[in-house]
Specification:
By secondary structure, this protein is of the alpha+beta class. It contains four helices and four strands, in the order ααββββαα.
Length: 159
């Protein structure tokens, strides 16, 4: 686990991902394979290899509804760029996909995050009392985000 990415201060508000866990342990290797550095991707959160669907991916807080102006359109010029799409649950995040290079290092299967699914899993852990204090603090922060956005939330964890 890359602890740097658990600290939301360095890369902006990372509440959802912090609630659900850390990053892929192959993160650095994926970035090296793509020949990208931290500064090449705005608001970068994670990176991985989807073995089942045959692509490398980056996960960034630069989706179409991002209010901070983060934009990773320059990655369209990357020789392996395939496409990118907003996370269906939270469109301030996006998945940027790349075709596989000719020489692919040994990477474990790690599909792109599904924030809606991760939030539901976290809610389940919360309801069963299996959250640690860090997760409880992040869940409270996330609840405040929902309330500020005008989304209904009740203390039972239902949105």
């Amino acid at each position: 686990m890359n602890v740097m990415f658990l600290d939301g201060d360095q890369f902006g508000d990372n509440s959802y991902l912090m609630l659900s866990g850390g990053v892929n342990t192959d993160f650095e290797l994926v970035m090296q394979t793509l020949k990208l550095g931290y500064d090449d991707v705005e608001r970068l959160r994670d990176a991985g290899y989807d073995r089942e669907n045959g692509f490398l991916w980056l996960f960034a807080r630069s989706g179409s509804t991002n209010i901070h102006g983060a934009n990773n359109d320059a990655l369209r010029e990357h020789p392996l760029f395939r496409d990118k799409y907003d996370d269906p649950f939270e469109a301030t995040y996006e998945v940027i996909r790349f075709t596989l290079p000719a020489l692919l290092p040994t990477l474990k299967h790690f599909p792109p995050p599904d924030l809606g699914k991760l939030v539901e899993q976290s809610k389940g852990r919360m309801e069963s009392g299996n959250l640690n204090e860090f997760e409880r603090a992040r869940l409270r922060e996330m609840q405040r985000h929902f309330l500020r956005a005008g989304l209904a939330y009740n203390q039972g964890g239902n949105y």
